[in-house]
Design goal:
The chain is α+β, with helices and mostly antiparallel strands. The chain has one domain (26-374). The protein is built from 9 helices and 13 strands. β11 (294-301) and β12 form a beta hairpin. The radius of gyration is 20 Å and the shape is globular.
């Protein structure tokens, strides 16, 4: 679906209660630049990093270019479970639908993957991320080299002169250091690839069935009866025959929830998942995520016809190496998507950010907050 998601190379601390208000130096630019959209912190991207980066297998990257991967960051949700897995005991409700649920999933996933691999559609957009520490509003521009992102507000208040200078220095550091920029691009690509692995596993990792109209138990997803049949809601649960090929996909074994597919566009509109049991990594040695963890990713079609992640909510607790607690709770909204030329360079992206920020100075903080919460 997209994501995701600049969820910048600035590490968004995996442990709780890290402040985000201090401006960073130019040398810290790489760390501050990749956190995403779906980024983009794209949800799947964040879940992938929970199983990989947060469990010490590599540094956490906060800012990815996953479009669900953010475009998936939903975007990529994806390939192949055999219809035979559903032949036995197909629910009566599914029999009333001409298309088997798995076929809808396969088609949507194929479109998400194709969209995630298509680098021709690039955008400028805004995000507002809320955590227990407050909110952060950022502007992003997708460029051919890497995601360019700039913080424009904390707690819906414009940056101070000192904070803004820190952002300018950070971006200047990236513009002036081709090696850092190349490394940033490499990290973003790694996160995108990891996200796509999870997304591509979805048809195999879960069993799907149609939800009866009006069944909204434990779900924040839309009711298809209110959407003229355009949105189809499917319940998913782990496929007992699925064996994760690596620790990256292990989280899927303990997850269940609801997948919403736009039947007209054959795209994933929402994925709402909950851990119904504790999930361990590396035989429990690397760590685990507690039962009850939850994520919600929503995607929508924007004005130019492309699909982009519009919201990502994450709530997870657990431990790393059995003694270091982790707690992640965030809600991020993405809006104001505007196309930019496919050949936009990072330097040009930075100039776009500066120009947009100058215009947004006149936007009232309350308006920024209202837009973020409306998504």
């Amino acid at each position: 679906m997209h994501p995701a998601q600049e969820s910048s190379l600035k590490q968004e601390q995996p442990l709780t209660h890290t402040t985000i208000r201090k401006p960073v130096s130019a040398r810290q630019a790489l760390s501050a630049q990749t956190s995403t959209h779906f980024a983009v912190d794209n949800a799947w991207s964040r879940i992938a990093t929970l199983t990989d980066e947060q469990f010490g297998l590599e540094k956490m990257k906060a800012e990815t270019t996953s479009r669900m991967v953010r475009r998936l960051s939903l975007a990529a949700l994806i390939t192949g479970m055999a219809a035979s897995s559903f032949a036995a005991g197909m629910p009566r409700n599914e029999a009333q639908n001409s298309t088997p649920a798995i076929d809808l999933v396969r088609a949507a996933v194929a479109n998400e993957v194709a969209a995630a691999n298509d680098g021709s559609n690039k955008h400028m957009f805004r995000s507002r991320k809320e955590t227990s520490q407050g909110s952060q509003t950022r502007l992003y521009v997708e460029t051919r080299e890497a995601m360019a992102g700039m913080t424009i507000a904390y707690d819906d208040r414009p940056l101070t002169a000192e904070q803004m200078q820190g952002e300018q220095n950070r971006l200047a550091g990236l513009v002036g250091d081709p090696e850092q920029l190349k490394h940033k691009h490499s990290q973003e690509q790694e996160t995108t690839d990891r996200t796509l692995r999870i997304v591509k596993a979805l048809p195999e990792a879960f069993l799907y069935e149609y939800m009866p109209d009006g069944d909204t138990a434990n779900s924040t997803t839309p009711n298809p009866a209110k959407d003229a049949g355009q949105l189809v809601r499917l319940k998913f649960r782990p496929n007992p025959e699925y064996h994760p090929p690596s620790h990256v996909e292990q989280v899927l074994e303990g997850m269940q929830g609801i997948l919403v597919i736009d039947r007209t566009c054959s795209r994933i509109a929402t994925i709402d998942g909950t851990l119904f049991k504790q999930v361990g990594f590396g035989w429990g040695i690397l760590g685990y995520l507690d039962k009850g963890g939850h994520f919600l990713v929503e995607q929508r079609q924007v004005e130019d016809g492309s699909w982009q992640i519009s919201r990502m909510s994450l709530t997870f607790k657990g431990k790393i190496l059995l003694f270091k607690s982790i707690a992640i709770k965030s809600d991020e909204a993405f809006s104001d998507f505007r196309p930019v030329p496919a050949g936009t360079t990072f330097t040009q992206g930075v100039e776009m950010l500066k120009a947009a920020d100058a215009k947004l100075v006149q936007v009232k903080p309350e308006a920024m907050k209202a837009e973020g919460k409306s998504r």
